[in-house]
Amino acid sequence: MGVLTRFSTNIYAIGTFAAIAGIMFGFDIGSNSGVIGTEQYQEYFHRPDPLLQGGINGALSAGCFVGALIAGYFADRFSRKFTLIGASSLFIVGSVFQAASNGVPLLCVGRVLNGLSVGVTSMVVPLYQSEVAPQEIRGRIVAVQQWAITWGIMVSFWIQYGAQFAKNTAAFRIPWAIQAVPALVLTCGMWIFPHSPRWLADKGRIEEATKVLADIHGNGDPNHPRVQREVEEIMAAIHFDREIASHRYTDLFKPGMAYRVSLGVCLQIWQQLTGMNIIMFYVVFLFQQAGIGDSQEARLVSSGVSYVINVVMTVPAILWVDKWGRRPTLIFGALFMSIFLWTVGGVLSTGNWSIGADGKWGVKLTSKSQADGVVACIYLFVASFATTWGPLGWIYPAEIYPLRVRAMAVSLSTASNWLFNWVLNFVVPLLMERIRYGLYLLFAAFNLLMAIHVFIAYPETKGFTLEEIDIVFQHNPRKKIPREVMDKWIEDRGIQRENSHADNFSENKTEVTRHEEA
Ligand code: BGC
């Protein structure tokens, strides 16, 4: 194998390269917050009133919502890989429109295009990653996308921070133009990477699918036992699926599948209701309202720190999410976030609230240690999200559906994420004024509810191949699947195997070692 082939068939290289789209996602999340406050932006766009500014902001998430909804069709019809390439080229066009905009209309067109693109990529990347990755490191590979998102948010924040010192329109044109860089890299580079083997198999291109699996998991050897086992399992699943359904949207709502779809959709909605985006979008306002920091400059720096924590604390998830398992990570993550938000709300409730000269509510905390406590809890909250719900919001929905509906179902769950992202964009500033510290208590309660929901309804999916996930849903979500049940499932599908699946979950470590040897 040449160096390039070795690179383009290395699972970490494939996963990381596709994850570049996460940087675009992060740029999108952070692309406006640092710009709209600058005098340069305000003057050039004739001081948009709150409604217009809301429209400019919302153009992006509205685009994301639509993009995520239509992505399933493109990913099934034209492949995960080409859909990703198409969406990244769209992002380049959108960024050029934004950077060159001569007024609000062009700016909005640019933002809608970027939104469409990110909607598509945020759905296709986890799908593609989970379909190329071996089950033992699937969580880790998808978590890399989340890591890229956090990098995108952080870098865009600091670029905007630096660019604000430019005296002219460069203050916003530079950050918007730089967005195109990762999209350009992805558009040009993605060609050398393989198609998803599962998509190829589904299209009847079995030889190509085998070759991809051999290159990625078997050192180029199609007869490698692991490759043969995977091909067999994928084919068995495809035949089995074909007998019961076709690729139709109505399949999503059939008994059995509707439940799984609801889990994916709820998980993505819950991910937004953790309250993480209160911090990502409005942490500067939060610090301002809580009277933290002596100047806007100091508050900006404290806000910047939360973006850095977000990046750093995603690393433990990349390293260990496949060891921890999905359920404990989600449950403990939600409980920790809940505790930190109760504390923030509780401390803020004890301060003296009054309306300031700017007509907005603000609080005077009684001591410096209270202010420090609020900042510490915010940082701890961000750290908890980063290691748990951040990555799992994308990992879990990408792994719970059978191939025939996977793209459509992931599309739907991703669209729900963007819908709630859009809603929060609007309501958080409103709630900050209306219910003030109650905002944190409300989201603390959501976190508690999601921990309970996960405990009751979400089965563990770590260590199973995407084909084996079916059996997980025929079982009590809170119990381990007995070996006999698993063996019967394998037998029913006529899969010949020396090592039964039970090895994969009861002795996960052995399986990882085996994979690394391979
Ligand atoms: C969420 C975004 C959030 C980001 C923060 C993503 O997983 O979907 O809404 O802003 O994480 O890191």
Task: Describe what this molecule looks like in 3D.
With 518 residues, this protein is mainly α. It has a single domain (2-197, 251-457), classed as MFS general substrate transporter like domains (Growth Hormone, Chain: A), CATH 1.20.1250.20. The protein is 75% helix and 2% strand. It has 26 helices and two strands. Strands 1-2 form a two-stranded antiparallel sheet. A hairpin with a 5-residue loop joins strand 1 (352-355) and strand 2 (361-364). Helix 8 (138-163) crosses helix 20 (389-399). 50% of the residues are buried. It binds beta-D-glucopyranose. Beta-D-glucopyranose binds next to helix 8, helix 15, helix 20 and helix 21.
Shape: globular
- Please state how the strands of the largest beta sheet are arranged side by side: 1-2
Tell me what the CATH architecture is: Up-down Bundle
The arrangement of helices and strands along the chain is HHHHHHHHHHHHHHHHHHEEHHHHHHHH
Proportion of residues in β-strands = under 5%
CATH superfamily: MFS general substrate transporter like domains
Number of domains: 1
CATH class: Mainly Alpha
Give average pLDDT, whole number: 89
Q: What is the CATH T-level topology? A: Growth Hormone, Chain: A
- Ligand list: beta-D-glucopyranose
Extract low-pLDDT stretches. Answer: 498-518
Structural class category:
mainly alpha
Total of helices = 26
Share of helix among residues? over 70%
Q: Please, what is the oligomeric state?
A: single chain
First-to-last CA distance? 15 Å
Which value, in Å, is the CA radius of gyration?
23 Å
Q: In this structure, how is the largest beta sheet organized?
A: 2 strands, antiparallel
Total strand segments: 2
